[in-house]
């Protein structure tokens, strides 16, 4: 009994350091909970979860590239936020190629030689955002990292001939290995610097293996252990939140929209529930253009934004319901672009964006993020409660 009590006190010390409001009684009660009959114990499930920023307003934001944040387009985007009910910006701190987009002054990161100073003065940017009452979110692209993969191939995936694997896109992209603890710590170091700079939330994107990885897993060379791909990816998310929560920043993750509607995507290592239970915010990319024929009964989901977003919202609620108090804030990415490559697509403007927002609202979801890769957003949109 004394050994059990000592172990409990040690665990309480670890938990309470990251969650000061947790009591020993709460920990004891949590430790006595056992999985329901037929359920397996989930080592990735946190004991406690508390929003580090409970007073944050309802977030409605836009995506902002580092080039926009560090250039003249920022003024246009600030004007949009100032004149509407938008109040947040998701800014690339580590972009889709793996560039750290401003000079952190961190010697650990400088040793990787992956900084490309796109944002000339991070403190000036943060001061400007604060003046305009913009909630700043740092976007960090995690495992899609062509730059680090080229500099450190041993942290990536190698073809049978020893060359670096890349996908078939133009230009080709490479990923780094989600099993690698060094890769984990590298990205979390970037996140800690973003928190130090003043970002209030860290949003991790590309938290997965490459698409179609299960088809090439057996021929690629890379370091791995006994964990499944799902466990490796969810393990990173859990570790990241444990590292960042004491800094007072929220942790969020972007995830494929269809992940809420299907079983775990084991090929790429994404499990909607296992990731969601370890984040403060989950941002599914529910762009109607990303769904194929038949989803939610729509022949062309892109042409039926209300139907598609409503269907994905219902599935999201169903998927997250079992998490109970561990359920994160639901803040999807929605579409503010026209998907010209989709047969039967429609042009997206004020009406189509408002239909997506109305679908979220009708399903009890008040938060959202708008995506447009070029950061050109539709004017005149009612972002609060658009009429049918």
Write the layout of secondary structure elements.
Elements: H1 2-18, H2 24-31, E1 60-64, H3 66-69, H4 73-83, E2 88-94, H5 107-110, H6 122-131, E3 135-141, H7 146-151, H8 181-197, E4 201-205, H9 229-244, E5 250-256, H10 272-276, E6 281-285, H11 305-320, E7 329-330, E8 333-335, H12 350-362, E9 368-371
Parallel strand pairs: 1-2, 1-9, 2-3, 3-4, 4-5, 5-6, 6-7, 8-9
Task: Based on the model shown, name its key terms.
388 residues, 9 strands, alpha/beta, single chain, 2 domains, disordered N terminus, TIM Barrel, globular
- What structural class do you assign from the helix and strand content? alpha/beta
CATH homologous superfamily identity of the largest domain: Glycosidases
Q: Please report the distance between the alpha carbons of the first and last residues.
A: 63 Å
How does CATH name the architecture of the largest domain? Alpha-Beta Barrel
**Main β sheet profile:** 9 strands, parallel
The number of E-state strands comes to: 9
SSE string, helices as H and strands as E: HHEHHEHHEHHEHEHEHEEHE
Helix content: 25-40%
Order of strands side by side in the largest beta sheet? 7-6-5-4-3-2-1-9-8
Number of domains: 2
Low-confidence stretches: 1-12, 14-18, 24-34
The CATH topology name of the largest domain reads TIM Barrel
Shape: globular
